[in-house]
Amino acid sequence: MEKLYPEWAIGPFEKPVDKPVLWPSEKGFDSWAVYNPAVAVKDQVFYMFYRAETREEANTPYLGTSRIGMAVSQDGIHFEKAGDVPVIDADQPLELPGGCEDPRICRVGDMWHLIYGAYHYPQEVYLCHAVSQDLIHWQKKGPLLVDGEGRPVPSKSAAILSDPQGNAVQIDGKYVLYANECVA
Q1: What does the buried/exposed string (b/e) look like for 31-40 if buried means 16 or more CB atoms within 10 Å of the residue's CB?
Q2: Which end of the chain is more exposed for a tag (fewer CB within 10 A), N or C?
Q3: What pLDDT digit, counting tens, does each position of 116-166 carry?
Q4: Smallest Cα–Cα separation from 54: which of 69, 37, 76, 71?
Q5: CA pair distance 147, 166, nearest whole angstrom
Q6: Does the CA dihedral 36-52-129-108 come out positive or negative?
Q7: Which residues, in sequence order, are bridge partners of residue 47?
Q8: The pTM is what?
């Protein structure tokens, strides 16, 4: 049988169920929307980090403050939310009032790196960075891209070059991040 993909590629993908693997809660920080997830696998457990919005803030000009929630799964299909509070909450000036959105995750050694967009409504979105050794407790590190003066550079839609196991990979000795208008 002819191989359709190179050795490093993952896939092909199939839709295993006809319903979402995650949906909004009745109340709380993710009662309006759950979307734009990223998944990491650690010790055969799937950890999904998702953008969440609350119904209570749906009528704001910025459509609510986004937060990042977490759900876990043993099979990668059936997820259970890990508590009723976000794992990354919007509490820094660059993150307010729009929030933390669109998580992306990778591992370097024993450290997990979560990249997310900080929506400083109405100005810009900035890529920010948090780290964890256990995928549960996170320490924010601030803006990921800064100019020569140390000011955050607007950008979003991060993609970290990673292998199928979620490890960030290097090209010519450097890690690679693709974002809206740049490669870093």
Answers
A1: bbbbebbbbb
A2: N
A3: 999 999 999 999 999 999 999 999 999 999 999 999 999 998 999 999 899
A4: 69
A5: 28
A6: negative
A7: 40, 72
A8: 0.90
